[in-house]
Structure formats: structure tokens, C-alpha cells
Amino acid sequence: MAVVLVSMAFVVILLLGVTVAGNYKGLGNLVKVVTLVKGQYLFEVAPEKLVEGAIKGMVESLDDPYSVYLDKQTYSSLQEQIRGSFGGIGVLVGMKDNNLVVMKPFANTPAADAGIEAGDIIVAIGDKPTKDMDTETAVNLMRGPVGTTVVLTISREGEEPRKISLVRKEISVPTVEGKMLPEENNIGYIAISQFTENTGHDLVETLNELRQQGMAGLVLDLRDNPGGELNSAIMIADQFLGKGPIVHIDYRIGRDHTFNAEPDQLNLPLVVLVNKNSASAAEILAGAIKDAKVGTLVGTKTFGKGVVQTVFPLDNGSGLKLTTARYLTPNKHDIHKKGIEPDVVIEQDIDAKEDLQLNKAISLVRQRIYQ
């Protein structure tokens, strides 16, 4: 039991940065609870479980939805997500009225094969209800080792909710999809679904391909993009900004940093599509483009996640995702819990047959090409 007590005290002192003398009552209560659990609790508890519980409690006490203790499986899934290849079911999800909604099932994946459709509401993942759950947590729950099973409770309009059991497969979803718009001779369209380590390089390749096909203007679609890797968003913003700041990273303890664009840029008419599910790294890119006035934002106000997380590896394969900074747009706007207002507001119903936001974006690009 002494080992457990020492371990618990060490974790508390290390993470909170206090001394036993400085916080004797709080630390004493923690040691007392451990002693009672070890000595009086009906069932035996492994010391490792108590330490893990203490760590979880500390992180949860921050009341920060973006700071999370990651168990071994969740930490592994997050690393896969950053790399862009993972064990999963193949869906892009977003939030609508605090419900987790399928935005797109990717072809030839377990989700598509099971008949899951855009617009379906994921009511629960396993035994965890998804109401008010953030998309990042939901994504992590749906991902896991290849060959393992996840059960989704799906609700579809006009039907009773049903459970669907899905076996995870290796999913390698391209984060950048580009094409020349078929009814336009010289307008390109690029959608970025999330930001992984490869997204920046994929975006550069796609831009080059479209320019070779005669692209004279571009629609960049960041709708339902939950964000991701910071450096990827910076690399992409650098393609569109001539010079000056891309984003300011503001730390609590004096090591603030500004990422600046290089002089070369893609000097074409640009319209960026955003909505309430455009978050984090997607907002960094959208905010940089708006402040630098190199493009026009069309759609609805973005999510409003203006904080940066750092992922720290812990022992036994676990990790800690901790909010370590906030970011400000080039003009030093703090968009956290506020979002970014588009230049042109166009509402778009999820069930609409016509994409009004895309139509407006095409119209604006066309006007600027021929003005």
C-alpha cells in the first residue's frame, strides 16, 4: 500500500505543481481516500487503476472539454488519426442540434456496406449516448484496432432506432478531394475533410494538377471539417497568403509564437465555404484567408474552437491531450466560443437537394474571373 500512496502523492505533486505543505489538506484527503479504498472497499483494486483514476479526475477537474486523459487504445487511435490511416468504420460526422449526424459515409467501408447514410443520427456508440458529445470524442470511440467491433445505435427519420454492429477495417480516407467543376471551364473545387500530416502535401499536389487543367479560380470547401494537425493548416494557408502572419499562438507562460507566410502565393480568385462544424485548424485557415483579404468566406458562422492542444505521451502507452495555448487570427481576433462570421451568410439545410452555398461560391468566383 505504501507504493500506491507514494505514487498517488507523486502524481498530484507533479501535475499540480504544489508541495505537501502548500496543499496539505487536499493531498491528505486524497491519501485518506486511497487508504480507505485499499483497506475498507469490498473488492480488491489494482494500484494502477487507482493512479489512473486520480489522473482522470485531475484532468476532468479542469472543466475543459478539450483536455482529456487518453487511455492506451484512445491514444493509439489519435495517433492514427493524425497520420491519416486508422482502424475505423468510414464515416464523416458533424453536429446538428446537439446530435451526432453522419455527414458522409465513405465508399467501400464498413459504414457504407452496412447501409449507413448521410443524415443518419448516431444516438449511441456502444453504451455511450452521443447527445452533446463533442465530435472528437465520438470519432475516437468509433475508431479502434482493425478487426474489433463497435456497435452504433442509428436513428433515421421515419424509422425506429436500430443497433448496427460494425467490424473495424483499415481506413485510409483522402483528406483532400479536388476537381474541375463540370459546368465551369476554369473553376476548381477542393474539399478538405480534416487536417492530417499528409494534408498539406496533398493540397499542394491537387492545386498543381488543377492549375495544369486551366484553373483560373477556386472554391475551397472547409464545411464539416473538424480540424486536426496545426502545421498542416499553416502549410495550406501559406499557399494562399502572400506574406505576413498566418496565426498567432498565445501561451500562458511567455513563449508566444507567430507563424508567417512566405512571399509566394496562389494568386487566384478564392472563395472558402464554412459552416458551424468548421472548427479548430479549419478556422485557422479560414481566419487567415479572411484577415489577409485573399478570399471570401461563404456559409455560416464557424464552430469557435480557438485553443490549441498538445498531446503528451505517458507511461504504458497512454497519453494526455492538454490545452496549452490559444490562437489568434492574423488581426489578433480571439474566436474561441465565438466563431468566425463569413463575409456572405448563406444558410444550407442538411436535407436540401440544392447546394446553395456552393452555388453562391461559384457565382462569386466567376464574377471575379471576368471582372
From TrEMBL:
- Could you list this entry's UniProt keywords, alphabetically sorted: Hydrolase, Protease, Serine protease
Q: Which family does it belong to?
A: Belongs to the peptidase S41A family.
Query: What Gene3D superfamilies does this protein's entry cite?
Result: 2-enoyl-CoA Hydratase, Chain A, domain 1, 2.30.42.10, 3.30.750.44
Q: What is this protein called?
A: Peptidase S41
Q: Which residues cross the membrane?
A: none
All copies of the PDZ domain together span: 75-157
Show the InterPro entries listed in the entry: ClpP/crotonase-like_dom_sf (IPR029045), CtpA/B_N (IPR055210), PDZ (IPR001478), PDZ_6 (IPR041489), PDZ_sf (IPR036034), Peptidase_S41A (IPR004447), Tail-specific_protease (IPR005151)
**What's a single GO MF annotation on this record?**
serine-type peptidase activity
Do you know which NCBIfam families this protein is assigned to? prc (TIGR00225)
Q: Which GO terms describe its cellular component?
A: outer membrane-bounded periplasmic space
An example GO BP is:
proteolysis
One Pfam entry for this protein is PDZ_6
Q: Can you tell me which residues the record assigns to a coiled coil?
A: none
